Amino acid sequence: MINPDFFTIKQSQEMGTWPPSNLVAHGISPYIGRHKKGDLVILDVGVMKGENAFMLLSNDTKKKIKMVYGIVSYAKDNSEYENILKQNMKDENRFSLDKIPSKADVVCIHAQGDLYNNLHKYYDIVEHGGIFCGNEHGSTHVKEQLNKFRREKKIGTPINVANDTYFWYVR
Fold this sequence. Notes:
171 residues; 35% helix; alpha/beta
């Protein structure tokens, strides 16, 4: 039996299980579309199969996104996820795993992995007026880590929530 965790996007579409409900893109895509700036640089922290990046770029009807840089969350030796990621993103020239930008307009932090440390590690690269966001806001773990992080950084900007995606504009 094939494990759906190892489906490509194309296979998921064929099975009628695309898109997954926990993608940051579900909540943040409309706000990216309304962003005042063009040529947006996005950092997607926690890439597994590239599904979030794929959906962000697919939803980018106004072509505001210049590039999505991904940081993988699976072990470097997990060739199964690596192969699926390559298949999913093979035709997308606006996605790269090759570097981490020093500044980004949008940073997406996925809930899996070391959420607390990822919040700290990538918050300061968001440009003024940019968006800091993540998924699974309904999870107790995410809320606890997010509240702890925001208290420590003294972030008073209100959190917005759309489709279980939390986000705020960085000031």
